[in-house]
Amino acid sequence: MAYRGMRGGHRRGRGYGRGRGGGGYNESRGGWKGGASSDRRDIEGLTETLKGLDGAGYKAYNSILGTWQFPGYTFIVDRVQTDPYAPPSHCRVQVPHDLAQYPSWATGTTSQRIACADYITRTFSRAARAGGHDQDAAGDGWHGSKGGAISIETPVQHILERTSCLINSVGNIELRFTVSLPARGRSIEGFRCAHILTESLPQVVTKSVPFGNQSQAQVQTHIQCYEDQESLRSQLGTKNLVAFIANGSILPRQSGISDRPMDVAKAVAFMSPQSLETSFTLPHKGTVTGMGIRKGVTVIVGGGFNGKTTLLTALQLGVYNKIPGDGREYVVADPTAINIRAEDGRSVTVVNIQPFIDNLPFGLDTTSFSSPDASGSTSQAANILEAFETGCKCLLIDEDTSATNFMIRDVKMQMLVAAEKEPITPFVSKVKSLFSDHGVSTVLVMGGSGDYFHVADTVIMMDAYRPIDVSAKAKEIASQHSQSVMPDLKFDCTTKRIPVASSLDPSKGWKEKVNKVKGKTQFGFQVQFGTEDIDLSYVEQLVERSQTKSIGEALILMKEKYMDGSRSVAECLAKLQNDLDDKGIDILCQGRPVGDLSRARVQEIAAALNRYRRLQVKKV
To answer: Please, what's the b/e burial string for 336-354 (b: 16 or more CB within 10 A of its CB; e: otherwise)?
Structure first.
């Protein structure tokens, strides 16, 4: 993966690139180019400088900005925090291939570099934690010692493309992390900072970066696991599938707040029914066998607490690759799959929901539906149409999080409320056309209604976490109750929405502050974009805080580069997708070498754009 953006400056940020020796990356030369030199811009010079700052006012830390040559690699301070209580300082180390020495099987392809960089990020995080280097000093109140933590974005169960570690095509490695520069009150602790930056940091780098200090078997397993999952997902279409769950997979998690696998001794390992079993050949693992979910309409049924939602959750996260030992390594789904749910109160801007909702009271136009406070049914309809706009080929829907009147309308209700009095065409009437006319498959969890049996191509019953193919029996039941069936109707939607770039305003007051992640609340993720909070609480396929940060940067890039007044939302997303694939996630940094971004899909970026309450859209 070639990457750029090693320049220090950034037009929207403050404090980047000041000082001496900013340094830059030169891909054609396969290495880094140092900035302006000065006496003792090395590890000894940094030590002397920091000790000389001891007791000085905190702003004097700015004198360490720039590039310092350490034995074998380069250390760069890009941004110094404004005071001890501000967000920590941004730093990098650049390790040349001569020192890192990762073999070609680890850095030869884009996929290998992504997986290898993910592995190095994890080892850096573990090394900092193991040595206690990730802890800030605390105690003795305001006048006490504070700061000192070396921190990097810590990944969880998913292998993602990240800015915390970048590897170029030559094999040079750049790690981006933060350091809370230590202070006592607002006075610099120079001797302590010298110990952190010139002794503790080299220990962490030495333990976590050079290939010779790693377990070759673990590095290889990590990379090969990633490559196998990429291969497996790419082969789904060859067998007419939208998802696959390998036999032996552990789908249940430790708890509702942990994504780690349940203890194998307690969990029920997944085992496919024979009728749905299929096999794939992977480049490293060889043959894997499990349950294939075919394109079309699949309904998952079963009693409560039998694993229906657990299976659907595993499928919605099957768009990501997992770390070895996760239990869901070989659970994959179509990369465009989107979880669809009702979302009371969300903002909707100029979406054609007429395929599902029409003839609203007071003559409200549903071909250009907008609402600052959409209902359950209108929000679910909008979610489907917006997913369609992103190129989604698989909808994942759980009855428990859906609007009932959007999903079904049984025969008794049809008898009481005439069709001309009901503005909602339930999803059950359009789900077949979504697939037959547009190639969009649907996987539904239905525990309380059999209305979908007549449109289902496959029906899977979960029984004590064991899947059973009950398609034949479900079709037989459906044929016995054909009088209650809602008619199959054509799904047709040709709306083209053009976003107005000027409506995206990332500024906050007089400051040019772009976006701030509020983090994961008890309800989910949120992004502060300028003065607006974008609520992503129900965008359930976001898995890391750093993904949410990258979404804010992606919105800014879309505004500045792709939204020209003629491109549709879909076209802007396609441009973004292509640039991310070709140039890597570092394009989101736009010249700022920050390390706290991980790649989100365009589906989640679109979800944020569509939930931005100031968004303006022109319809064509």
So the answer is: bbbbbbbbeebbbbbbbbb
